[in-house]
Design a protein that fits this description.
454 residues, alpha/beta, five-stranded parallel sheet, globular
Length: 454
């Protein structure tokens, strides 16, 4: 049996949680404000359920900061009706055990209490405002936000994996912004965009006269990022010879400029790739020792098609952002939203941003309809589809994209989509279920179901 302190200004929610805890055999202690909660906190409290938004000049984040700064503090679970990247990352960084959205059911509450650890010690500092990065409230993106909060203050190397356009640099910047190195520089280098013969100089620097064209000393990205963060994007495209030098730099925290002498470096390293490094290691295209050195803290960003709940918030965010220069705000119709949610987004968040910006610019009305949403320019297969995928997987991916395109073209009408694809409607239903494709319930089904669908 545990003693759980509930800190929430909503009396109904407070009493409901207390009743659920009592039914589960636990003891509830209630507080209506942050100050009351701190006063009610004692050595006998095993856990705290803490509301994020409370009146009285002390919000949940400040209460969390004070609780977790104490020795042997109890685990704190932050509850909020308005989950965002900012408050999720900040709460996890300050030592929250978890960050959950209201309401929380009795079964979820029971499972949560079973997961809670014994009282432990954690000290955390203040966190900055997240701004508008990492938009989304799906469980998948919230797991990414939580991982950022837990890893931000560490010096450990982070390997971010995700498809092209999924937001890998946003994650890297969030790790920097919320970490103890936030006052230092953030230096980003795209390893795939720099010619092989220039990459060493770009990363490690060079001394004047070390090669033709070296007319002045150059410090290089490792030293430019001193006391800050160096983000190496597309690390999977780095040549093997350079990989060996990167490994040495990471292990010894020393870089050698071209034509110069070894120099100490103190940058934190974050890397990212859209490629499967484990497969590259097996194919001898990526050093195994470097892979394990980079993959200390892995963070995987799910593709947009696997977090459909984030599509609308992202679309509204991009729509608001593109409207800032002109001050002319536009809205999406329900049909436009349905079309966005049906699309497979092979280009992920970057593609969604481009589609929204194009729709805003080209639509003459203040209301953006489904006809204004042009998703036809997407490739049939994602640009970063692995070339070594087996045939059944490639065929399945092609089928899914063709079905999504047909549904887009027909406004969600399954009968018309089946005709366009040359299959009967029942087979289309079966394939849609297999690939997890949903169609808006208000789709305009025609009465043209006859012999063709039997």
């Amino acid at each position: 049996m545990a003693t759980v302190l509930i800190v929430d200004d909503d009396a109904a929610l407070r009493d409901g949680l207390a009743e659920a805890l009592t039914d589960l055999g636990h003891t509830a202690r209630l507080a209506a404000s942050g100050r009351e909660g701190l006063a009610a906190l004692g050595d006998d409290v095993d856990a705290v359920l803490l509301d994020l938004r409370m009146p009285g000049g002390m919000d949940g984040i400040e209460v969390l900061r004070r609780i977790r700064s104490a020795h042997n503090a109890p685990p704190v679970v932050v509850l909020t009706a308005f989950a965002s990247a900012a408050n999720t990352i900040e709460a996890m960084r300050l030592g929250a055990f978890d960050h959950l959205s209201k309401p929380i059911g009795r079964d979820d509450l029971s499972a949560l209490l079973n997961r809670l650890p014994k009282r432990s010690h954690s000290i955390a500092g203040p966190a900055p405002d997240a701004g508008d990065g990492l938009i989304g409230s799906s469980e998948a993106i919230r797991q990414v936000q939580k991982a950022i909060g837990l890893a931000a203050d560490s010096d450990a190397t982070v390997l971010i994996h995700g498809e092209t356009g999924s937001g890998k640099e946003l994650v890297a910047r969030a790790l920097h912004t919320y970490g103890k190195r936030k006052d230092g520089p953030f230096i980003a280098v795209n390893c795939a965009a720099i010619p092989e013969d220039l990459l060493e100089s770009e990363l490690f620097g060079h001394v004047k006269g070390s090669f033709t064209g070296a007319t002045a000393d150059r410090t290089g990205a490792f030293r430019d990022a001193a006391n800050g963060t160096l983000f190496l994007d597309e690390i999977g495209d780095m040549p093997l010879a350079m990989q060996a030098k990167i490994l040495r730099a990471l292990q010894e925290q020393v870089v050698t400029p071209v034509g110069g002498k070894p120099v100490r470096t103190s940058a934190r390293i974050i890397t990212a790739t859209h490629r499967d490094l484990a497969k590259l290691v097996g194919a001898k295209e990526f050093r195994e020792d470097l892979y394990y050195r980079l993959n200390v803290v892995p963070i995987a960003i799910p593709p947009l098609r696997e977090r459909a709940a984030d599509i609308l918030p992202l679309a509204e965010h991009f729509l608001a952002r593109v409207a800032v220069p002109s001050g002319r705000h536009k809205q999406l119709t329900a049909a436009a939203v349905a079309k966005l949610q049906r699309h497979g987004w092979p280009g992920n968040v970057r593609e969604l941003r481009n589609v929204i910006e194009r729709a805003y610019i080209l639509s003459r009305s203040d209301v953006i309809g489904s006809d204004d949403i042009d998703t036809s320019r997407a490739d049939v297969l994602p640009a970063d589809s692995p070339p070594d995928a087996d045939l059944p997987a490639a065929v399945a991916q092609l089928e899914k994209m063709m079905i999504l395109r047909a549904l887009d073209a027909c406004g969600g009408n399954r009968t018309e989509a089946a005709r366009r694809l040359g299959i009967n409607r029942q087979l289309l239903y079966t394939k849609m279920q297999r690939y997890g494709i949903a169609v808006d319930a208000s789709e305009n089904l025609t009465g043209r179901v006859s012999k063709d669908d039997e």
